[in-house]
Structures are given as structure tokens and as C-alpha cells.
Amino acid sequence: MTFETDLEIMRTRSAHGDNRLDTRSSCKKRITVERFAPHARLNNIYTDEVEVLYMKKLITILLISTLLTAFAMADAGDMLPDAIVMRGIAVSMDLDGDGKEETLRWDLVDVDEYTSSLTLTVVDTEGTQINYPTELIGGQAVYATDMDGDGVVEILLTGDIASDDYYTTCLHFVGGTLASVPFADGNRGDNGSDYMAEGYGMVMDISGNALSLSGSQDILGTWFATRIYALVDGRFDFADDGEWVRVTDTNESGFWEDNYGVLTTTTPLDYTAVDGSAAQLPEGARLMIVASDKQSYARFITPEGIIGTLTIAPNKDKGWGMTVNGIDENSCFEYIPYAD
Ligand SMILES: [Ca+2]
Ligand SMILES: [Ca+2]
């Protein structure tokens, strides 16, 4: 049963179509388990074989999981391995630039029977302990590095506060207290104009004073989209061209066969080709949205390698969702995978 539960988690993690895991092969494995299970009850010899099969598949999944983590680390940029702070291991570093080292550490603290959240602890040079509890209950990680080279360390706390609602807080240890650095509003929904106490999304990369965050966005379905921020004058502002970019690999094996995020057109759909010319997708075409500004366009790719741009707009009449070429999105596609 543990085996099936692991697969269920894999499938859930793929629910936003970010497709870091192959949902098709997960489905296959579940079906195999269900097919073999009745034999296991009938015959002990079968039971042994099935156990070996389970173990083999479990080991395969663990290997795949390890490889995915390794690839994620490799993709995460050169800064992350140096900047990462491991859970439960105290790190000595001069956080405020006064020449004396403080101690930094984070742990998971139980919120209730099922949940634990990230709490950061700093011990100053006098031995005073400062705790910073958070609501980050999943996918937690901490990074500490002086991104902008001003002598004050940026302490980044990242994780999920609910289900796929990732946030990143940046803290400075100054004057004996921990203060948060504001972020430009990159939240799900309308493009914000104000600053937030935390950045929207999980840390994907740290490079100099630039920080990439990826969080759920609702653009013809809910998917993980990345933006780049830069730390300038004590706050994080957008430092890219305004485009929300999907974290995905459309060349991955099995990508198009059973991907939650693939859209299928229910009507011929006008689009703009890469060369700027007008073109049309036929009814029944499959596509994946890969980038958007959330306001006026959504770029897509098809299994045939067609790249194009749809004209979209927030659906003001309905109050949520999008229009495509002025038409409600539900009239354009079979099923649009929005998350709650
Ligand atoms: Ca210090
Ligand atoms: Ca700094």
C-alpha cells in the first residue's frame, strides 16, 4: 500500500502540469500493481514474486527521484549549493557585517499532529536567541548568501503554505532583529502594483543579486511560472521582460500522452506564428502554454513543434479566467485544468 501511496503523491505533484515527473509511467505502474494484487492473495509463490516486483519498482522510483533531485540541483544555478542551509545544522556566519559571526539554523516545528512548519533561529554574538516562525509547511528550504555584496546576508526562507502555494521570505539580521525585505507583487491573479512582505513562489535560482521564483499562476490552466527579481536598494523588483515562463520540458518522454496541462482545441483557433503571420490551429489540436504576460498573450507549443501566440485577456465579465481571441476560454478548449 505504501507503494501506491508514493505513486499517488507523484501524480499529485504533477497536477499542475509542470511535468517534472512522467505521469504516464506512474499510471502504468499503478495498473501493474492492481493487476498483480489478486494473484498475491491466491498463491504464496506469486506473493514472493510480487514482493520482488514491488521492491524492484520501489528501488526504480527511488533512483528516479534521486536523479530528479540531482538534476534540479544542477539546474538550480551555481549559487544554490553554496548558499543552501541544511535543516538542523547550525551555520556560523557574519549576518550583519559587523565582523563577528552569528549562528544560523532552521528546523521543522510541529504545528499539530500532521503538520510542521519552518522556524529559523539566529543566535547573536551575545548568545541571545531570536526565533522566526513561519507558515511554511511543505517543500521548505533555506539559503543564506550576501546577494548584493553590501555585507548583510540575505536569508531566504522558501516553501509551501498550503497546497502548491509557495512563498519566499528574505530576512536581514540588523540591529539584533530579523526584518523582511519587500518584494514586487508577483502573486497569482492580477498583476499587482504594490510590494509584498514575501516573494511569490519557490526559489529556483540565485545568481548575484538576481533571484528566480516559481509559483502557481492561472493562465489557461494553473501552472508553475517563473519570474526573475533583483535586489536593489533594499527591495526585490522584477528584473526581466515581464514574462511568466513555465518550468517544463516538452521533449521529455511521454510528455504529450498524459499530461494534465495539455489543452485540446474544440474549435479552429486563430494565432500569430513566430514570423508574425496569422495562422490557425484546427479543432482537436493539442497544445501546451509555455509563457505569458497574464494580460495580453499566451505562447504555446504543439506536439508537432508549432510555436505560436494566442491573444488572451482576463475575463472581466466573469471575474476570473481568460478570454482567447475575445471568446471565453471554455468555448475554445475541451478541459482547462485550473486548480482551486
Ligand atoms: Ca555579525
Ligand atoms: Ca546583502
Structural class: alpha+beta
Bound molecules: calcium ion
Shape type: elongated
Helical amount among residues, as a percent range? 10-25%
- Portion of residues in beta strands equals 35-45%
| Strand runs, count | 25
Termini separation comes to: 28 Å
Order of helices and strands: HHHHEEEEEEEEEEEEEEEEEEEEEEEEE
**Number of continuous helical runs:** 4
Number of domains: 3
Please mark out the parts with pLDDT under 50 across 5 or more consecutive residues, or reply none. 1-54, 67-77
Q: Biggest sheet, in brief?
A: 13 strands, antiparallel
Mean pLDDT: 82
Radius of gyration: 23 Å
Describe the protein in words.
- The chain is α+β, with helices and mostly antiparallel strands.
- It has three domains: 2-58, no CATH class; 79-245, no CATH class; 255-331, SH3 type barrels, CATH 2.30.30.
- It contains four helices and 25 strands.
- Strands 13, 14, 15, 16, 17, 18, 19, 20, 21, 22, 23, 24 and 25 form a 13-stranded antiparallel beta sheet that branches. Strands 1, 6, 7, 8, 9 and 12 form a six-stranded antiparallel beta sheet that branches.
- Helix 1 packs antiparallel against helix 2 and helix 2 runs antiparallel to helix 3.
- The model is unreliable at 1-54 and 67-77 (pLDDT under 50).
- Bound molecules: calcium ion (CA) (2 copies).
- The site of one calcium ion has 6 residues, from loops.
- One calcium ion is lined by residues 94-96, 98, 100, 102.
